[in-house]
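If you are new to this repository, start here. Below is one unmodified record pulled from the training split, so you can see the exact layout before writing a loader.
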Amino acid sequence: MKKVEAIIRHIKLDEVKTALDEIGIKWMTVTDVKGAGKQKGYTEQWRGSKLNIFLNPKLELKIVVKDELVPKVIDTIMAVARTGAIGDGKIFITNVEEAVAIRTGARGEEAL
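And here is the target side for that same chain:
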């Protein structure tokens, strides 16, 4: 099993979720995150002062899938989340040693 972690733009969540649903991926965890990369921050005005914000808001998707689904998940996220501009995000893949369903006690791929 692998965990696919994707950092994407907020505006792309609905499109990504729909596209993943179409390939049979109906489970995911979504978290609001902030980060810095090649995309520069932005400036806000607050009480007459300019504030330089260097952490940009993004969403992090976490999806655990069987090994054979990883290329399909990556291709789907890339196709839908890509705008071509700096700040589109990143995808990270890590090994998952074990998964356990709390309700049923199922383990491994059966827990997915």
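Two things worth knowing about this chain: The beta strands are 2-8, 29-35, 42-46, 49-53, 56-65, 90-95. The longest strand covers residues 56-65.
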